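Lecture 7, part B: from sequences to assemblies.

Below are the input chains for today's worked example.
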Amino acid sequence: MKVLKIIGNCSLVFLAIIGVLVSIAFGYYHFFVHDITVGTNYVDNQIGIDVVEADKLNEEQKDQYEERYFMEANFYSNSKNNGIALQELKFNYFTDYRLTSDGYRSTGMQFLGDLKQEDLTLVETTEEHANRDEPGGFSYYDTTNGISWDGNKLRTQLNRESAFTIKIDNRAFQIQLTGTYEWTTYKRQWYTLWIWNKPTVHVWMYTYLDVFADCMQAIRSNSAGFGDYYVTVDLSEYFTIREYDIESGKYKTDDVTDIIKNYAVLKFHYDENGARNSTQSIFKCIDCNPSYDVEDKNIDTSYWQERMVYNLTNKDFDLRYSEVYGGYFISLSMDTKSLFADMPRSKVNVDISMQYGDKKIVGIDYNGFENFEIDTLTVEGSGKFYMLEKSLFNSKLQTLKRSKSISFEIDSGAIDTSYTEVIL
Amino acid sequence: MKWYTYLICFVLIIVGTFCGIQLFKEVKAESYINGSIDISNKFSQESFNYSSTSVTFYHDLYDETDTYTFDKELLKVEDYNGQKKTYQLWLNDFILLDTEFNAGSVYSSVKIDFYDEYGAIVCNSVMEISIKFLSNKSQLTLSTKGEESASFLEQYFSDNGIRLKVVEIL
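Predicted structure of the full complex, as structure tokens:
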């Protein structure tokens, strides 16, 4: 028993000595030998990892899927004084670590006016308030699909407690506003027998107001001026980024790396105009109003359908000379006909003048205008005008206008619809 | 050994353990780079392509021609050459036939009729399109005459979006 006690005591002393040595080694390494380590996080496009590759997307899909940067901003400066000054900042992120498109979420803040950095004053707040409260004077919005936005209370809060999942290198990370700004003030004070300047350390806990003002300043000072551009901003002072550890299922805190730099792309629209209506907002709302307009509109713009109007004239036609008829027959190329056939919301009017420079137009060729819809066909000139077989077949012609001195010679099967004839 | 000797030993062992873990972390720590940012392709585009979910026309207070205009400065276009190449201009799914392709600019006009629920035309809108390819940017201007026309066009683009592109015919 006594031997065991001696062995135990010796072991304890031995471990204590090792503990002292390790502590000394740590102190030495930490304060004298330590090399600098720098961690850099680049926050790029936040497209879900399940979204198909860009070359498989059509143009519309590209617009929808290809661009989803962590930060997007919209800044109507109202330099022309034709609307209102409007500033918006949107954060695109994921709701979970799978980083798929069904986990998309965006939250944003909107300011009516021109907020500048110099307008901000450093005021100390309690940690509780700084963490929980959102900056006042803003409208906030939230969305999952990027199309419909809501600005009520049931949305993600933009405060220091919010941690967003983002994608870096197709891996999950979490980004959170944690930065602080510290400054010291000195106050002269009597201390026993001498006067000294008593230092007081103040801590300003950054909020999204600071991030917002800095982003707007970055936009305001961009070298390209007004337009749609991209800049890379340094968020190191504001945000902490933690990596998701697949094995432990937790987001890791990095307390070892000496310097951690966080860069992100800020995509923005900077406009010299003022915002006029809610369609210009990236949230499709201004002041939480989807019908916002600076003018009281009394024009009713409701309509059923629209038609893109095409007026085809002689210069648009192919010509074929006929010795039998002593003039040219007109037609449209197959490509042009199929082009119009593929545009169901187009309204095609055909204006034919029987004299085209020194060429005499005598009619419409075989299959000339078949298989696409024509609203109005107008023929001006004099003499006989021929419409050869299937020239207007399946054209659903509505109105045929002609000069008084023109007479039509229409082949059987040239046209298969009834139309209204108008004499000019 | 006295009781406080045990206490001191335990404290030293615990401190040593924590220092050991921290020392291990710091010795093993390496600089790292997560991700990358490449926006080099965001300052120019090979061909002109503009899309948006809405268009808002502005009326200049000093303009007496009742013209409503939408101006947009866009990325410069690298390889437009209206003198040597052939192009088409497309607005949404419609090709614009009356288009003038110049050395460094494109002009076109588009006419849109709007119908009410009974099939009667409620507005004829004519919109002029101007695209200028400058050395450092592209400049897009859409303009129309009259407030009614501008309002209907705004409604149309709000409903359908705008996709304007200049396509080279190879």
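Note for the exam: The longest helix of chain B spans residues 3-28. Keep this in mind when comparing with the next example.
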